[in-house]
Amino acid sequence: MDSSNSRLHLNACTGHDDNRSGKREVVDEMDFFADNKEIEDDVEGDNGSPKLSRPSSSLDFSHVNTDLLLLTTTANTNDRIDPSLVGMGTSSNPEQREKCEIRVLRSELEKMSLENERLKEMLNEETNKYNNLRMHLITMMRQNQEQQQQTIHRNHRNSDQIEINRNYHADTTDDHHHRASPEGRENHGPTTDKEMLDDPNRNVDQAAAEATIKKARVSVRARCEGNMITDGCQWRKYGQKIAKGNPCPRAYYRCTMAAGCPVRKQVQRCADDKHILITTYEGTHNHPLPPAAMAMASTTSSAARMLLSGSMPSADGLMNPNLLAQTILPCSSHMATISASAPFPTVTLDLTQSPNPLQFPNIPSNQYPFPFTTNALLPQILSQAFHNQTRFSGLQMSQETDQGRQSQLNDTANALAADPNFTAALVAAISSLVANNSNNNNNNNNNNNNNMANDNASNNNGSSVNPSNNNNL
DNA sequence: CGTTTTTGACCAGCGC
DNA sequence: GCGCTGGTCAAAAACG
């Protein structure tokens, strides 16, 4: 108990002002006893000297809060009691009150944080469930679509086969079998569709077709300072070679998101422009993919089917990829090519140039490798592309369903466009649309490298491999 | 210590 | 058959 407390106690009891350190506090104390001021005046003598020896009988000390002594025990020498707090019996110090409030706020903050964490966990859980369901739905839809396409294709060809020269049909079907067997094995299977349908060895043909699909590739040319474009998958490097005609080594990666996944990709810098990275994908994933990887993953398989379809005979004649692509993406131009004349049929997306200088002003490549990233048209383009994909797919949908789907596609496109890490995969998605449409229209690929529609998409420099690979690429 | 990368060796396809 | 080339394997090294 320091002297100030003793002094304060004295003041509270007597109202005597012996405070030499601050008058204001004394006044406040006096205000606290305002009700008894008259009495106190009577207690004091005319000369101001205390008259403690003559206590008034009218004094009622019951009004004096005895807590005062206790409340001031923690006050330092320079502190005085806040009269508004005196009598409350809880806190007499603003700092204490602030500390108390801070403790309360912290407690509330902790509670909110815990609640936030809990909600985050719930959100993640629901998001995972949603993604899984979405993946499952997409897979089911794709399978359904393929089954319908196959049915339509068979019916179409069966109805046409009377009009088609039988020898030609036999030759082209055989050619298809040759194409479906990249290893060059002889295939003397059935020569008509009916025979094919009835052929018990048709599974062998399907296996050959699958082999072709596996060999079909999607190549993406993009300006990228990093060693790889981000496509949402995890890759492991398993080899590197110096390819002929390019001093830059070619790196070989395989997907490691699941054991036995057949998907592989090659990454190589362009010989002419070291800033251009050429990424070639091959195969179809055999495992669930994160949303960021779905577009690219579907691209390779779709492109493979497209190219396989392009090798098939058709009474519709040769397809025009450029026209087809313009139908899919009317605002696009010359960003993609299809080539089945290469050792492996390949869809090439050239993302190193802007199709429309007015639409896509020059942006430093190190900032926005693909102008698409910052372009507001991306969601519209994607949505339109997805919509057109559905429209061309042959699926019969009511207008209401179509509208609802369009809304969902718009949301999806917006979400995709907002994620810069997703852009490379979006590019692939566009090519996937081209692939599906060509497949659905049952056209041939005439290997003329016609330009296909595609708008810019963006890229980023993320990589799932060790950055040390930069030295090699 | 497990995983990933590096890198030389090996294999298959293709052209001559 | 031989050589070239692309692609893959696998042991060693590097990494975290």
From TrEMBL:
Coiled-coil region(s): 95-136
PANTHER family: WRKY DOMAIN-CONTAINING PROTEIN, WRKY TRANSCRIPTION FACTOR 36-RELATED
Bias-annotated ranges (Basic and acidic residues): 15-27
Keywords: Coiled coil, DNA-binding, Nucleus, Transcription, Transcription regulation
Name of this chain's protein: WRKY domain-containing protein
Cell compartments where the protein resides: Nucleus
UniProt keyword Transcription regulation, yes or no: yes
Acidic residues composition-biased segments: 28-45
Domain WRKY per the UniProt entry, residue ranges: 224-290
GO MF term (any one): DNA binding
GO cellular component: nucleus
Keyword Repeat among record annotations: no
Region (Disordered) residue spans: 1-58, 172-199, 438-473
Similarity section: Belongs to the WRKY group II-b family.
